[in-house]
Amino acid sequence: MITRRGLIKAFGSLSLLPASRIVAASVAHAGEPAWRHGLSLFGAVKYPVDFPHFDYVNPDAPKGGRVRLFTIGTFDSLNPFTYKGDSAGLVASTVDSLTKNASDEPSSQYGLIAEAMRYPDDHSSVTYRLRPGARFHDGSPITPEDVIWSMTHLKLANPQSAFYYKNIERAEQTGEREVTFFFSVKGNRELPQITGQLQVLPRHYWEGTDAKGKKRDLNDTTLETPLGSAAYKISKVETGKAVSARLIKDYWAANLPVNVGQNNFEEISVLYFRDETIALEAFKADQYDYRNENSSKSWATAYNFPAVKRGDVLLEKIANKNVQGMQAFAFNIRRDKFKDRRVRLAFNHAFDFEWSNANLFYGQYKRSASFFNNSELAATGLPGPDELKLLDPLRGKIPDEVFTKVYKNPVNATPLERRKNLRTALKLMGEAGWKLGPQHKLVNARGEVFQVEFLLVSPLFERIVLPYVDQLRLIGIQSTVRTVDDAQYERRRQVFDFDIIVANWPQSLSPGNEQRNFWGSETADRAGSFNFVGIKDKAIDQLINDVIFAKSRHELVVACRALDRVLLWNDFVVPMWYIPYQRIAHWNRFGRPEKLPDYSVGFPDIWWWDAAKAARIKAGK
Predict the structure, then answer these.
(1) pLDDT value at residue 29
(2) What is the pTM for the complete model shown?
(3) Taken in order 40, 134, 148, 137, is the CA torsion positive or negative?
(4) The CATH fold of domain 326-437+459-467+501-578
(5) In DSSP terms, which residues pair with 272 in a beta bridge?
(6) CA dihedral 565, 570, 573, 574 (to 10 degrees)
């Protein structure tokens, strides 16, 4: 359950809660489902109804100080809820949702705006009861009308939201503080929690007028700061350059268990940079505080500046239990030249991961061999009996290798293996109708030359792609690399105007509805979807449904493994790599809990300003 705002899903039935931990927020009427304080996709939530705070926070964390973050790109709007324009992402975090995730559970959410929730056994609807003290920053209460309006208008304002919430058929106020959402399908355990992720917008604000008397429109871009409800409020905007938010003194939810020990900084700022190289230099110059380092080269070579040697900047590798999704070279199979699976497999044989890992990545990465790396969801070995129950009905519609072979990427550990793989690649291209012609170029029977363009958004990837281009040239494939700015890249990606891109499909430990957006037939031609490849396959659609409608954790794991092997054996991508930990660099002026949660570094949510550390850095400069 992953949206473009980074929402990670986590939800489901609590029917397995032990009796000692079932404490209803109010007594349900006979025949009605019980009210619940939290939701988990399968089984019980970890925390009881009267829990004081999450285990991974410091409830006595001091409040104060400032944290400075960064991002690459720019922004021209403060409305993050429309697909139009480039919005400042920090604005979305100023609006609370019905529920909030727990970072030490793979699939649990607890009430935030909603104090309780309930749904029937068939998951055909969900009812949320709002907290009486929930309010927006202007002091007005958050009402059922706001919730219903938000769902309706977010679906109208953004195609991604419309698809994400497509199974929510209608919403009705069913009590003084209650909203019930009715679903178009039954048995989908994700839908209650998907609904809980809804950010509730103020109807009166969006139906009103701005300072100039112009009527507001959720569908349009704006540089007016929207009314929010969360712990922070936008305080300063430098259009395209920076945006800041300050902690609300009387935040209505500050003392709720889901917020205790969090939101500790007085101010949060996000700086925008157009180039990653410049951004790294800005970090060295102490212009911002924290980096998730995604470049192995930078991690190995760029952090030898004086502040690191003094201990003013700390470098850490933090392991977590998160699924590592697939990052890969993704083919656009809407284009005829990529429709033949043998062509796509040839590209994999030509990719020399081992050379790249040794010479470009300093040996830091593992080769991806699953769409669910680093988890129990990844397919291993041959399919077992439970998987075969899902796969056997699809025989003849999925690759035969699914049943007979264990998926493995080609290995180029030696020069001999490298030559062998290139010969295999050339053979596969020949079988697909492409033969070497004049000037060592692959041509088909019509005399067309096989040419591809790698579309990139970051110059950092050029050092990875250019050696790959050289390998492809050895087998007659003519390749070019085109690096464009963020706006142009996003436009071309949204309308699938590319041959090959570097794609990334993040996953959670409880996959579900988002898989339709990744691989489902109905999204293949929908602009802006994450089905970059253009997959239209009824067998894969069926396996996606098996994932979504799984009735137990065991069934979910089995369905994910079956889907994984079918995606792999279709060779839709050339798998890249992953690391089972997070590389972070930060200025040493913060405190944090002794033990971080299993599924998040927690920065900046559960960290805090350490005045003594900050003073030492200032004195040492």
Answers:
(1) 54
(2) 0.81
(3) negative
(4) Dipeptide-binding Protein; domain 3 (3.10.105)
(5) 71
(6) 80
